[in-house]
Amino acid sequence: MKNFKQAIPVALVAACGPLLSVHADVLADWTFETSIPATAGPFNPEVGSGSAIGSHASGSAVYSSPTGNGSAKAFSSNFWGVNDYYQFQTSTVGYTGVTVTYDQISSATGPGSFAFGYSTDGVNFTYLSNYTVLANAAPNVWSNSVHSAASAYSYDLTLATDLNGAASVYFRLTDTATTSANGGTVGTGGTDRVDNFTISAQPVPEPASIALSVIGGLALLVVRNRRP
Fold first, then answer.
1. Topology classification of domain 21-209
2. 124 pLDDT exceeds 70?
3. Which of 8, 9, 80, 217 is the most exposed place for a label (fewest CB within 10 A)?
């Protein structure tokens, strides 16, 4: 009996582990191949559901869809000023453990300083990272055939539990300075573009699945311990 009790935790983990393991699903993915931006948006993702927009204080900003990072299209704009941003929104209802990946680059006189932030109401944002965007020049030139890993960004937001199961989550890439990607000053014609913006998360296991996994684990444990 003593050995039986000690074996329960290990046996349950071994038996239930495969049944409780989950994989990440893509909730929304903007590649801009079909949306082909020519305005501030909103744009539906090519995969999943949600919306993407651009926001500039200047009414002169021009939006376009030049070459992406290893793809034909991206989301681009000029007339950048501090606090202008790109924003991406989706729902995480039924999901947990959010991750975000995207590609971003600027022209030589485009903005070089950005911050990545998230929100659940689209108004109050928590900023996690300030980063420098590369200039679209050798050896980091974007093309429709080769993906530049140097201009790729990734965030594991597993610890941001307020993003789990939310009706709406928002992510912003916000311009934070007047410094351009080449170290000078941002010019009115300077552009920044984003591509392959992907929001992923893990589905929350259904209670019935958890119960079945536990029952299955107990049954397997009993059978194992009855063997001579």
1. Jelly Rolls (2.60.120)
2. yes
3. 9
